[in-house]
């Protein structure tokens, strides 16, 4: 089991410096959430790791080797994105066969289970699948290939709520059976909050958070109550945002709280991952 090391990645499109200096390490057998506002370069980063485009500088390393143009290493990765190309006219079941040959094996038993659970017609041509079923087809591929690193770029695109729930529960059960590393890019943050163990946030071309989710959320609170009490309580704390509801103030605080909160008249609740993300990356008022 190997770590994937991403070091000082930079990428520019014409004069737009999208990725300025991206560094992080993916540990084996962990589920990551890669979060960022629209256009920050999440897909670009996944495409660099998966050899679909090149960085201007920096390295991505697995077992001491660069992943660039490295076929042996790339066989250990799978990127599910909107840009997969299959020969025209290919049916879903032919694609499974084709990928099985390309990657050496395919989990046919699990794919049969997933095909039945999602109701995919494997005799349908890929080009004719609906948006949701195209996503389902790609998810089945991602979960059945023998790879160690699975990168899922918008994995629930076009899926209805039932199929999204089904996917999340299948992800957890296949992860338990055969742990591997998943990196999930999505804007539906609350839906993956309970799945991910580690969060990476990209903002303005750099990684601004690289944290264990439980540790991070244990430090993220909403303090609410009468304004004077909230102001008193939050003095010296890192307040990401304040909201008002009539006389009540809510302060979104990141960091350790004072040890003794018994005498305070404020109420303290845990923030949601989505709220934390929004307030960490909000540009309004800066
Ligand atoms: N092939 C390309 N040529 C020129 N610009 C590109 C290209 N690919 C991406 N970009 C630009 O790079 C920036 C990052 O795009 P990217 O798709 O990586 O962001 P993202 O974080 O995945 O966004 P979203 O959350 O909206 O999907 C955007 O400004 C985009 O327009």
Describe this structure in words.
The chain has 286 residues and is of the alpha/beta class. The protein has two domains: 4-211, P-loop containing nucleotide triphosphate hydrolases (Rossmann fold), CATH 3.40.50; 218-281. Helix content is 32%, strand content 30%. The protein has helices at 42-49, 71-74, 92-103, 108-118, 131-144, 161-177, 189-192, 213-217, 227-233, 273-281; strands spanning 4-13, 16-26, 31-35, 57-62, 65-66, 77-80, 149-153, 181-185, 198-203, 206-212, 220-226, 238-245, 248-254, 267-270. The strands form three sheets. Strands 6-7-8-3-9-10 form a six-stranded mixed beta sheet, with helices on both faces. A four-stranded antiparallel beta sheet has the order 2-1-4-5, covered by helices on one side. A four-stranded antiparallel beta sheet has the order 12-13-11-14. A hairpin with a 2-residue loop joins strand 9 (198-203) and strand 10 (206-212). Helix 4 packs antiparallel against helix 5. The longest helix has 17 residues, at 161-177. The chain is globular. The mean pLDDT is 94. The structure holds adenosine-5'-triphosphate. The site of adenosine-5'-triphosphate has 11 residues, from strand 2 and helix 1. Adenosine-5'-triphosphate is lined by residues 13, 16, 18, 36, 38-44.
């Amino acid at each position: 089991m190997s770590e994937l090391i991403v070091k000082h990645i930079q990428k520019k499109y014409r004069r737009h410096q999208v990725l300025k200096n991206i560094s992080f390490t993916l540990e084996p057998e962990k589920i990551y959430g890669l979060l960022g506002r629209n256009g920050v370069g999440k897909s670009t980063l996944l495409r660099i790791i998966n050899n679909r485009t090149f960085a201007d500088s920096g390295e991505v390393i697995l077992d001491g080797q660069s992943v660039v143009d490295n076929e042996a290493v790339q066989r250990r990765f799978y990127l599910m994105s909107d840009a997969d190309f299959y020969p025209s006219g290919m049916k879903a079941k032919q694609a499974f066969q084709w990928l099985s040959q390309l990657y050496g094996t395919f989990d046919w038993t699990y794919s049969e289970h997933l095909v039945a659970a999602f109701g995919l017609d494997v005799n349908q041509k890929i080009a004719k699948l609906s948006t949701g079923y195209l996503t389902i087809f790609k998810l089945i591929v991602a979960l059945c290939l023998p790879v160690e690193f699975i990168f899922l770029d918008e994995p629930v695109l076009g899926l209805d709520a039932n199929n999204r729930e089904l996917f999340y529960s299948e992800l957890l059960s296949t992860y338990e059976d055969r742990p591997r590393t998943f990196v999930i890019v999505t804007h539906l943050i609350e839906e993956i909050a309970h799945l991910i163990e580690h969060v990476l946030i990209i903002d303005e071309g750099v990684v601004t958070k690289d944290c264990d989710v439980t540790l991070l959320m244990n430090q993220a609170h909403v303090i609410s109550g009468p304004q004077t009490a909230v102001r008193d309580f939050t003095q010296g704390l890192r307040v990401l945002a304040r909201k008002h509801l009539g006389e009540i103030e809510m302060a979104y605080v990141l960091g350790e709280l004072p040890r003794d909160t018994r005498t305070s008249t404020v109420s303290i609740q845990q923030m949601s991952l989505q709220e934390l993300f929004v307030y960490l990356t909000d540009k309004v008022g800066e």
